[in-house]
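Researcher: Structure prediction, please.
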Amino acid sequence: MTARILVIDDEQNIRRMLRALLEQEGFEVGEAPGGRAAIEALDEADPDLALLDLVMPGGPDGLATLERLKATRPDLEVVMMSGRATLADAVRATQLGAAQFLEKPLAPEGLLATVRTVLELARARAENRALRDALGVEASLVGVSSAMDRVRALIGQVAPTEARVLITGESGTGKELAAHAIHRQGPRGARSFVSVNCAAIPRDLVESELFGHERGAFTGATARRRGKFELADGGTLFLDEVGDLGLEAQAKVLRALESGTIERVGGERTRNVDVRIIAATNHDLAHAASAGRFREDLLFRLDVVRLHIPPLRDRREDIPPLLEHLARRVAVHLGRPSVLFDPAAVTLLGRYPWPGNVRELRNAIERCAILGRDSVVTEGDVERVLGGPGVPPPTSDQTGSLTAALEQYERDLISTALSRANGNVAEAARRLETDRANLYRRMRRLDIDYRDNDE
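Model: Predicted structure follows.
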């Protein structure tokens, strides 16, 4: 991963010396002769770190420039440099967000050590933020079934490698958790994990989201933006619902994987990126490729190792440990000491088919905890949450094909939601606690006729 550094100093010789030193160490380096020029160059240079002189005649001084840099780019790391700094200057620089303060004349070894330390700490903070955001709920693959044992074993085999992984499974089974586990246990575990839901990006913004854009590249592009590939440079990029990418975007992703380079929308410069790709889908991509909806060459690139996450209905022995694990999470989320379920409630939860898998189970636990009348969730509480008008609770004496029964249940559930939403797909999706793109896919798969009243 190549970091970009902006050197801001009014002395040309110092800028030239720092550029030579830093470029020799593999950094990309830009220059600015003063504070005003630095602010103007910020968008173009797009630095990860700035080396900023304290005393610069003829414009804003170092402290004023630091304040403006941090206001424009709060995540920018800034190292101050000066041969005439006072303690008050150092304190003020720290208050304004400077990461370090170096005294001139600069020692090359000390400068390089400071730059590397500051960049590494910045990456670690970004990684921690990303993991906290992504793992705010279920942070582990819980289960005692042999199916989950196989999943964990395969993760243990593939994680230490750089192999691309295609994770398959129904919505809500925990594909992103598996991707996180592969990342954490792999050689890039200390670097960034960047996730993008390909199904949730509007078609006309897919390229910008993945590859970034330059200012003015299109209407509304008022500032330069890094795409997901750049943000994941050195780490892992998780392409969730990759089967929902359009063919044009698929071609560009394929080119990025083959060449290791990307180009921002509206840009002319190619950039090297080093990312490990983990993709996930609930589609049959082989079938989509044969139907011309997914590029076969991209499928071959993504499907180096395949990891399938089984649905919850096929590993019902995992429901009790999941229930215990998720109940603890829900209790913390709701600010309660504990969420307990009586044995009859656990039995009923174990008989339910869970078309929404682990995600639906967690939502059901939270609703039970909120709507339950006592400190312990009862069978009646579960029936009220899982049943509702027109949706009878599942029974253990159902007969016939399990797949057909589940599809009919899902069809009835969606049709009821559409009816109550007067045909508004977005509102039906909200009632079903899913996103609209996922609901559209399910409706097409189940051949549900509808008249879209979203407008």
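Model: Residues 260 and 273 are 6 Å apart (CA to CA).
Researcher: Thanks, that helps.
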